[in-house]
Amino acid sequence: xxxxxxxxxxxxxxxxxxxxxxxxxxxxxxxxxxxxxxxxxxxxxxxxxxxxxxxxxxxxxxxxxxxxxxxxxxxxxxxxxxxxxxxxxxxxxxxxxxxxxxxxxxxxxxxxxxxxxxxxxxxxxxxxxxxxxxxxxxxxxxxxxxxxxxxxxxxxxxxxxxxxxxxxxxxxxxxxxxxxxxxxxxxxxxxxxxxxxxxxxxxxxxxxxxxxxxxxxxxxxxxxxxxxxxxxxxxxxxxxxxxxxxxxxxxxxxxxxxxxxxxxxxxxxxxxxxxxxxxxxxxxxxxxxxxxxxx
Length: 295
Known about the structure:
With 295 residues, this protein is mostly helical. It has two domains: 2-53; 85-294, MetI-like fold. 74% of the residues lie in helices and 0% in strands. It contains twelve helices and no strands. The chain has helices at 2-53, 57-60, 73-82, 87-119, 125-137, 142-151, 158-181, 186-194, 199-207, 212-227, 231-236, 260-291. Helix 1 (2-53) runs antiparallel to helix 12. The two termini are 52 Å apart.
């Protein structure tokens, strides 16, 4: 009986090892496929941009991925930065100001809204939640928005386009803050109020510092979205002095001739800041997106 039990236990252990090894092989295959798909979807287009950004005008006009005969990256960068009296530099300043001001206002407004939506439970709560959700569903209307901005004297101004970006990013940010707020115990609010803490002090001194993970996520995602926005500045912030980075792509495109090497160089310069942001803060993005899902 004893030898049979040993053989049975050894067989069970070998079966477990085989199953475990099979799972590891499947997981490895899935990871390899995911990496290959990522390279195909993101790596090849980025390589196409880089390789054409280092070519001259003649070679880049072929729009292929062949290796250039000579490198002209520094020359192309210098030409892009000095084109149209330094429009790209001016656009970088405008895009930076737009992104910074929009993010500051968006974080303050949406965090306070998320706090109220999660903590205040009454008859109007469902109605306000419905309004926030409809902001994610209903697309923005261009002509009425221009009319409102023009009536307020904010059309073609930096405050006007900042308000537009904040309004468009508010529903997503408020819902994300609301879901994360559910992980913060209400006892913290009650203890602070008992100690004589006011509403604003409660939020900004106690609650808001606890929102760092989701705040990081909203800052990074919204900053990239606003920085790369093309449509809203085109409609609501027109003018040569108000140009943003995405609109500078028009500089090197025309009906009769397109300087593809300069266009791809411009795209490369525009893409570097968001790419660096994602590389260094990707873990915080994932942490903030999943933090409120466990409640």
